[in-house]
Design goal:
Blueprint lengths: L2 H15 L6 H8 L3 H13 L4 E4 L5 E4 L12 H12 L7 H13 L3 H11 L18 H9 L1 E8 L5 E13 L4 E7 L4 E6 L3 E10 L5 H4 L15
Antiparallel strand pairs: 1-2, 3-4, 3-7, 4-5, 5-6
Length: 234
Protein backbone atom coordinates (compact mmCIF):
# COMPACT_ATOMS: atom_id res chain seq x y z
CA UNK A 1 0.00 0.00 0.00
CA UNK A 2 1.46 3.36 -0.99
CA UNK A 3 1.33 6.37 1.31
CA UNK A 4 -1.64 8.06 -0.36
CA UNK A 5 -3.73 4.91 -0.07
CA UNK A 6 -2.64 4.49 3.55
CA UNK A 7 -3.62 8.06 4.46
CA UNK A 8 -7.13 7.50 3.14
CA UNK A 9 -7.31 4.12 4.87
CA UNK A 10 -6.21 5.61 8.21
CA UNK A 11 -9.00 8.20 8.03
CA UNK A 12 -11.57 5.51 7.20
CA UNK A 13 -10.33 3.31 10.04
CA UNK A 14 -10.60 6.15 12.56
CA UNK A 15 -13.99 7.20 11.21
CA UNK A 16 -15.36 3.66 11.57
CA UNK A 17 -14.21 3.45 15.21
CA UNK A 18 -15.16 6.98 16.32
CA UNK A 19 -15.55 8.05 19.04
CA UNK A 20 -13.33 5.18 20.21
CA UNK A 21 -9.59 5.72 19.89
CA UNK A 22 -6.84 3.91 18.05
CA UNK A 23 -3.29 3.91 19.39
CA UNK A 24 -0.35 4.54 17.09
CA UNK A 25 0.80 1.00 17.81
CA UNK A 26 -2.56 -0.44 16.74
CA UNK A 27 -2.55 1.57 13.53
CA UNK A 28 1.05 0.58 12.83
CA UNK A 29 0.15 -3.09 13.19
CA UNK A 30 -2.97 -2.64 11.09
CA UNK A 31 -1.08 -1.08 8.17
CA UNK A 32 2.23 -2.94 8.69
CA UNK A 33 4.36 0.15 9.15
CA UNK A 34 6.32 1.66 12.03
CA UNK A 35 4.82 3.74 14.82
CA UNK A 36 6.94 6.68 13.63
CA UNK A 37 5.41 6.37 10.16
CA UNK A 38 1.89 6.47 11.61
CA UNK A 39 2.77 9.53 13.68
CA UNK A 40 4.03 11.30 10.53
CA UNK A 41 0.87 10.27 8.65
CA UNK A 42 -1.38 11.61 11.41
CA UNK A 43 0.55 14.88 11.42
CA UNK A 44 0.13 15.23 7.65
CA UNK A 45 -3.60 14.57 7.88
CA UNK A 46 -4.02 17.12 10.68
CA UNK A 47 -2.15 19.74 8.62
CA UNK A 48 -4.47 18.97 5.71
CA UNK A 49 -7.46 19.83 7.88
CA UNK A 50 -8.70 16.37 8.86
CA UNK A 51 -10.21 16.73 12.39
CA UNK A 52 -8.08 14.13 14.17
CA UNK A 53 -7.31 14.67 17.84
CA UNK A 54 -4.96 12.82 20.12
CA UNK A 55 -5.01 11.94 23.81
CA UNK A 56 -1.76 11.24 25.61
CA UNK A 57 -1.32 8.66 28.31
CA UNK A 58 -1.67 4.94 28.79
CA UNK A 59 -5.22 4.79 27.42
CA UNK A 60 -4.81 7.56 24.88
CA UNK A 61 -4.83 7.37 21.12
CA UNK A 62 -6.15 8.98 17.97
CA UNK A 63 -9.77 9.64 17.08
CA UNK A 64 -11.56 11.52 14.35
CA UNK A 65 -14.34 13.95 15.21
CA UNK A 66 -17.37 12.46 13.48
CA UNK A 67 -19.39 15.66 13.89
CA UNK A 68 -16.85 17.51 11.72
CA UNK A 69 -16.44 14.95 8.95
CA UNK A 70 -18.44 14.25 5.82
CA UNK A 71 -20.78 11.26 5.82
CA UNK A 72 -20.07 8.60 3.21
CA UNK A 73 -20.49 10.18 -0.24
CA UNK A 74 -21.99 8.47 -3.27
CA UNK A 75 -19.78 10.32 -5.76
CA UNK A 76 -18.99 8.17 -8.76
CA UNK A 77 -15.29 7.94 -9.64
CA UNK A 78 -15.95 10.13 -12.70
CA UNK A 79 -17.72 12.78 -10.56
CA UNK A 80 -14.82 12.83 -8.10
CA UNK A 81 -12.34 13.26 -10.96
CA UNK A 82 -14.47 16.08 -12.41
CA UNK A 83 -14.31 17.87 -9.06
CA UNK A 84 -10.55 17.26 -8.92
CA UNK A 85 -10.11 18.83 -12.37
CA UNK A 86 -12.12 21.89 -11.33
CA UNK A 87 -10.14 22.24 -8.11
CA UNK A 88 -6.85 21.81 -9.98
CA UNK A 89 -7.81 24.88 -12.01
CA UNK A 90 -7.89 26.77 -8.71
CA UNK A 91 -4.12 26.44 -8.46
CA UNK A 92 -3.55 30.17 -8.95
CA UNK A 93 -6.65 31.30 -7.11
CA UNK A 94 -6.93 32.82 -3.64
CA UNK A 95 -8.21 29.50 -2.31
CA UNK A 96 -5.66 27.07 -3.77
CA UNK A 97 -4.77 25.74 -0.33
CA UNK A 98 -8.42 25.18 0.56
CA UNK A 99 -9.01 23.45 -2.79
CA UNK A 100 -6.36 20.87 -1.95
CA UNK A 101 -7.78 20.10 1.49
CA UNK A 102 -11.34 20.00 0.10
CA UNK A 103 -10.38 17.34 -2.44
CA UNK A 104 -8.67 15.31 0.26
CA UNK A 105 -11.81 15.39 2.41
CA UNK A 106 -14.08 14.45 -0.49
CA UNK A 107 -12.05 11.39 -1.46
CA UNK A 108 -11.65 10.36 2.19
CA UNK A 109 -15.44 10.34 2.56
CA UNK A 110 -15.97 8.06 -0.45
CA UNK A 111 -16.09 4.29 -0.17
CA UNK A 112 -12.73 2.55 -0.40
CA UNK A 113 -13.63 0.97 -3.75
CA UNK A 114 -14.86 4.24 -5.31
CA UNK A 115 -11.91 6.28 -4.03
CA UNK A 116 -9.50 3.68 -5.44
CA UNK A 117 -11.31 3.77 -8.79
CA UNK A 118 -11.23 7.59 -8.76
CA UNK A 119 -7.48 7.63 -8.14
CA UNK A 120 -6.99 5.09 -10.92
CA UNK A 121 -9.00 7.23 -13.36
CA UNK A 122 -7.15 10.37 -12.25
CA UNK A 123 -3.88 8.61 -13.05
CA UNK A 124 -4.97 8.49 -16.70
CA UNK A 125 -5.50 12.25 -16.96
CA UNK A 126 -2.79 14.81 -17.66
CA UNK A 127 -2.98 18.60 -17.25
CA UNK A 128 -0.75 20.40 -19.74
CA UNK A 129 1.23 23.49 -18.77
CA UNK A 130 4.09 25.41 -20.43
CA UNK A 131 7.51 23.85 -19.84
CA UNK A 132 9.22 27.19 -19.25
CA UNK A 133 6.24 29.10 -17.91
CA UNK A 134 6.07 30.27 -14.34
CA UNK A 135 3.11 28.75 -12.47
CA UNK A 136 0.53 31.26 -11.28
CA UNK A 137 1.52 32.49 -7.85
CA UNK A 138 -0.82 31.56 -5.04
CA UNK A 139 -2.22 34.39 -3.03
CA UNK A 140 -0.58 34.49 0.39
CA UNK A 141 -2.72 32.97 3.08
CA UNK A 142 -2.91 36.34 4.79
CA UNK A 143 -4.72 37.85 1.77
CA UNK A 144 -7.32 35.10 1.84
CA UNK A 145 -7.76 35.73 5.57
CA UNK A 146 -8.08 39.49 5.02
CA UNK A 147 -11.02 39.06 2.62
CA UNK A 148 -12.72 36.42 4.77
CA UNK A 149 -12.39 38.47 7.98
CA UNK A 150 -12.73 41.93 6.35
CA UNK A 151 -9.47 42.95 7.98
CA UNK A 152 -7.19 45.73 6.72
CA UNK A 153 -4.03 44.37 5.13
CA UNK A 154 -0.64 45.96 4.44
CA UNK A 155 0.85 45.06 1.05
CA UNK A 156 4.21 45.33 -0.65
CA UNK A 157 3.10 45.54 -4.27
CA UNK A 158 5.03 45.62 -7.54
CA UNK A 159 3.30 47.56 -10.32
CA UNK A 160 3.55 46.96 -14.07
CA UNK A 161 6.64 49.16 -14.26
CA UNK A 162 8.47 47.21 -11.57
CA UNK A 163 8.13 49.85 -8.86
CA UNK A 164 7.42 48.56 -5.34
CA UNK A 165 5.15 50.43 -2.95
CA UNK A 166 3.76 49.66 0.47
CA UNK A 167 0.12 50.43 1.06
CA UNK A 168 -2.72 49.64 3.47
CA UNK A 169 -5.78 48.21 1.76
CA UNK A 170 -9.35 47.68 2.93
CA UNK A 171 -10.34 44.34 1.34
CA UNK A 172 -13.51 44.04 -0.72
CA UNK A 173 -13.37 41.02 -3.04
CA UNK A 174 -11.40 38.74 -5.31
CA UNK A 175 -11.97 38.87 -9.06
CA UNK A 176 -11.05 36.15 -11.53
CA UNK A 177 -10.04 37.39 -14.96
CA UNK A 178 -9.45 35.33 -18.07
CA UNK A 179 -5.87 34.66 -16.94
CA UNK A 180 -5.16 36.29 -13.59
CA UNK A 181 -6.71 36.82 -10.16
CA UNK A 182 -7.12 40.31 -8.70
CA UNK A 183 -7.48 41.52 -5.13
CA UNK A 184 -9.97 44.41 -5.07
CA UNK A 185 -9.86 46.87 -2.21
CA UNK A 186 -9.84 50.48 -1.10
CA UNK A 187 -6.23 51.68 -1.28
CA UNK A 188 -5.46 54.19 1.45
CA UNK A 189 -2.27 55.28 -0.31
CA UNK A 190 -4.13 56.34 -3.46
CA UNK A 191 -7.41 57.09 -1.65
CA UNK A 192 -9.44 55.19 -4.19
CA UNK A 193 -10.50 51.67 -5.16
CA UNK A 194 -7.76 49.63 -6.78
CA UNK A 195 -7.27 46.16 -8.20
CA UNK A 196 -4.04 44.34 -7.32
CA UNK A 197 -2.86 41.44 -9.44
CA UNK A 198 -2.21 38.74 -6.90
CA UNK A 199 1.03 37.47 -8.44
CA UNK A 200 2.51 40.94 -7.91
CA UNK A 201 1.93 40.95 -4.16
CA UNK A 202 5.32 40.33 -2.60
CA UNK A 203 4.47 40.56 1.09
CA UNK A 204 1.30 40.95 3.15
CA UNK A 205 0.44 41.33 6.82
CA UNK A 206 -2.86 41.75 8.60
CA UNK A 207 -3.40 44.91 10.63
CA UNK A 208 -5.37 44.93 13.85
CA UNK A 209 -8.22 46.84 12.26
CA UNK A 210 -11.58 45.86 10.80
CA UNK A 211 -12.26 47.36 7.39
CA UNK A 212 -15.44 49.37 6.86
CA UNK A 213 -18.09 47.51 4.86
CA UNK A 214 -17.89 48.11 1.12
CA UNK A 215 -19.72 46.39 -1.72
CA UNK A 216 -18.01 45.25 -4.90
CA UNK A 217 -20.66 47.04 -6.95
CA UNK A 218 -19.55 50.33 -5.38
CA UNK A 219 -15.80 49.97 -5.97
CA UNK A 220 -15.33 47.25 -8.59
CA UNK A 221 -13.70 48.19 -11.90
CA UNK A 222 -15.76 48.45 -15.08
CA UNK A 223 -14.20 46.26 -17.76
CA UNK A 224 -15.42 46.52 -21.38
CA UNK A 225 -17.10 43.38 -22.75
CA UNK A 226 -16.97 41.66 -19.36
CA UNK A 227 -19.55 41.40 -16.62
CA UNK A 228 -18.91 40.28 -13.04
CA UNK A 229 -21.17 37.70 -11.47
CA UNK A 230 -21.17 36.24 -7.98
CA UNK A 231 -19.93 32.73 -7.33
CA UNK A 232 -22.82 30.44 -6.48
CA UNK A 233 -22.66 27.38 -4.22
CA UNK A 234 -25.43 24.82 -4.45
Amino acid sequence: MNRTDRLYAVVEDLRARAPRRRTARELAARFEVSVRTIERDIGALQQAGVPIYADAGRHGGYAVDKTMTLPPLNFTPAEAVAVAIALDRAGGSPFARSARTAMHKIVAAMSAADSAAARDLAGRIRILSPVDGDPAASVPTVIEDAVAARQVVRLDYVDRNGATTQRDVEPVAFVSGTRDWYFIGWCRLREEARGFRVDRIRRASLLDETAPPRQYEDVGPSIPDLVAHSLEIG
